[in-house]
Amino acid sequence: MLFVIIAVLLAGTVAIGVFSFMDMNFSTELSSFLEGKLSIDDGEWQDFSVDEPINQPFRKAVIKGKPLEEFSLITNLTISSQNVWYTIYDDKGGTVIGHQFLSPEDIYNEMVEAHGEEAIKKEYGDWDDFVRDTFPQQRLQIRMPDTPGYYVYELENDIAQHYFNPEKEYTLEITYPYDAPQAELADCFSATLSYSNGKYMQFFFTALPVVLLFVLVCFFGLFFFPIAGFILGKVDYKYLTFGGLCFFWGLFVIVHTISDYLNMWIIDSTVCMMIHELVNALFILTIILYLKSNLERSVPRAIANVAATLYLVLTVTGVVLHLTAVMDLHAFSPYIFAFTGACAILMAVLLFVETRSNAKAMWVLVSWIPLAITIIIDALNHYLHFANIDFYNFGLTVTMIYQIVRLVIDLRTQYKETIRYQKMQKELYEAKVSVMVSQIQPHFMYNALSSIAMLCKLDPDTAHQATITFAQYLRSNMDSLKQTKPIPFEQELEHLKKYLYIEKLRFGKKLNIVYDIQTTDFVLPQLSIQPLAENAVKHGISKKRGGGTLTIATRETDTAYEIIVSDDGTGFDVNEKKDDGRSHVGMENIRRRLQEMCGAEVIINSTIGEGTVATVVLPKEEQHHEDIVR
Q1: Of 102, 151, 184, 424, which has the most beta carbons under 10 Å away?
Q2: Is 454 in the same domain as 603?
Q3: Is residue 430 assigned to a domain?
């Protein structure tokens, strides 16, 4: 799967290059279609190249010059603007075209002047029909006269030739109406000269390959990572949040790529701007949630939750202010940007604190360094103008590809662990069946029933109690087959007491049982202690003349819980391998179950003639109480 993702990314990169090369034969995007002099914020006039982006911060930019020589050859002129007003004046100071707020009356009069009243009435009907048919989708724009939004103005060649004379000089005035943040001219204004279909042709060959590539990214985010978590048998919050992050990364790049074209499909220019700003904010929010998913400690997670909630509230506030025409989202963006910076510092601190107890948090923190570095470089470039490159996109791409590769490798590892766990569960099931069968062998059942039969005559009440206990013992053995998780020690102890109660009926005074239980606050696999007690009774105490004592004890140390099953029976040589049934297959099954499920070990010490001590050591660090079955 990792190779498939890399192959798709490489194929997309190649496709972008091929389509971009082909695009040069169809259209050219320029900083201006006027060639002449440039003045920024009423400063000195300077030379500029229409082929190079003008990366200068501005409030007001003025370009004076003549239309390009290629202007007479092209069939379309398309002007794209973002968050700026612009007006083009002729050599006499008259307005040629522009993007300024116009009321419905102004637009109607302008269209009548350009095409004639009869043509407009034939196309739209009377004034009421014109307003009803033309402006329902622009109600927000009409309510926000100070918001330029994202605007696309397209002129076909015959109309462009009507407006512009290649021999005359024109003035292009571009105004950025916001106090902050200060924008660069290249980000706000561009002109496209093309031979056919104008902006649509440029979109097809320039933007569409990127859009298609990141639609795949959105698909992976929306389906692959969440579903992968479900396949592993659980809802993993980290995969869900990264799925959201991956989806909004793709959406972020798509909207950023088509921002110059949004007004071609969405009439209201203020809505186009709102969509772009909102996607940016939601992308940042998913980054915060994803970083939070890598936090394990409760306090950092709680702090991250508060930060994410406040960021969401701030974003919703901006959208509400925009929709109610109080303040547009671009004017509100400095508040969101400032809080984004605060959240970035906060999440970095939380991840750094988390590294003390969570080694993975360090890798997560390091993986976002490329993005942080490129943001700093972009900030310096904004003032020093040393390159016409958007470094931020490179840093973001490197960071996101690393996240994808890391999570895909993690998914692969977890998948292998899941397969291994399922195999282990099958083996454990078979082992438990073996243990259960060994514990209810025919001779054990025969001895138990024989003891109960004798008690029926000697002590009916005791026989009644013994029958109930034996039935509960058999049921508990059968129920153990359904159990796959560790259980509290109290449950295992109750089952052990039933077994020893039955054995006590059989051996009478020859079997003494002592319980020294000092702690019960731990878990262990079901039916893991009874085989140790059974060995003690069967191979130690029963073979000793006069019987003996079986002791069941528990104790707690600084690092572990211990269960001690000891007897003062005949003992045996632990180094001698004999086929006496004392250990071997059944005992090895117990060892493996304790090791696989609880990380425990079984230590057996025995002295011939003195007895045997079996100690089960359960490390505290392996005690996961969320897996306890009550």
Answers
A1: 151
A2: yes
A3: no
